[in-house]
Amino acid sequence: MTMKLPILALLCLLTLTTHAAETTLIGNDRMTNWIYTPTEKPAPSKTYWLVVGVHGAGGNGKGACDVASWAGDFDDVIVLGPSFQQARPANTNRPNASSATTSSTTNTPAAPRPAGMPGSAYQMNGPAHEAKLRELIAVLGRTWKLHPKIFLHGFSAGAQFTHRFAFRNPELVVGVSAHSGGSWAKLEGDDRINPLARSIPFVVSCGEDDQGTGGPRGTPPRIEGAKLFATNLQSLGFTVELKTWPGIGHAQTGEAKAMGKALLEKLRTEQAASKTVKP
């Protein structure tokens, strides 16, 4: 059965896999987005945590940056895997305009992939992509009772999106797990760390052999960028945990995902404890 929603169309509800139901959503951009829930239907008595797992460049939301299983590990966690478009030069394999696509790249002859990173790119939390995530959250909230703040997890370009979304929407974010980003917000300039977001805890990591970069000319290697970002956060009073992985290049490790999961568990425990404290 297909249900029509104002912006997105609910395509299908699949069978339970690894104790989590998988749902796909198609947006006006024809991108497929994935939702993972602990049960097929919400429990009326529960309020759910929403985890958003953001893919790297050239990927899509399937598996939600490999944290979809968290929806099966907790009975009050929903995981959203949005898919974001990334421009690239045209080729001869352009998808049919009437069909949905799971690819996060789009063939646009007038907009070849630039050497730098334009502010409209999803890695930079471009306005269209920021608005898309906010709309996805709103759509989910019509069916599932959600906590008012989301938890963000991202690897590579996904880390670039997640931390910038948090700085631009601090009222919507409870925690950030960002790993091996190709570029990071800074203390100065247009792409700036928002000090008003200092109540949001961060976990950051990178492979020690990750010497590549995902930003414009002059961007430091990912390992150095992660270290500098964590230092800058600390200088502004943020709570941040930084870990580096010996012998690891540009790859999302199980340890990186464990850092994010541990932070989520900590935030869930703290909120539960706060509810038991009597005024």
What do these coordinates show?
The chain has 279 residues and is of the alpha/beta class. 24% of the residues lie in helices and 22% in strands. It has 5 helices and 12 strands. Strands 1-2-3-4-6-5-9-10-11-12 form a 10-stranded mixed β-sheet, with helices on both faces. The radius of gyration is 18 Å and the shape is globular. The N and C termini lie far apart (48 Å). The relative contact order is 0.12. The N terminus is likely disordered.
Offer a quick outline of the entry.
This protein is of the alpha/beta class and 279 residues long. The protein is built from five helices and twelve strands. Strands 1-2-3-4-6-5-9-10-11-12 form a ten-stranded mixed sheet, with helices on both faces.
- Which percent bin holds the helix content? 10-25%
Order of helices and strands: EEEEEHEEEHEHEEHEH
Record the strand order, biggest sheet. Answer: 1-2-3-4-6-5-9-10-11-12
State which percent range the strand residues make up. Answer: 15-25%
Number of strands: 12
Radius of gyration: 18 Å
Q: Ranges with pLDDT <50 over ≥5 residues?
A: 1-18, 89-103, 105-115
Q: What sort of overall outline do the alpha carbons produce when their principal axes are compared?
A: globular
What's the overall average pLDDT, rounded? Answer: 84
Structural class: alpha/beta
Query: What can be said about the biggest beta sheet?
Result: 10 strands, mixed
Cα separation of the termini = 48 Å
**How many alpha or pi helices?**
5
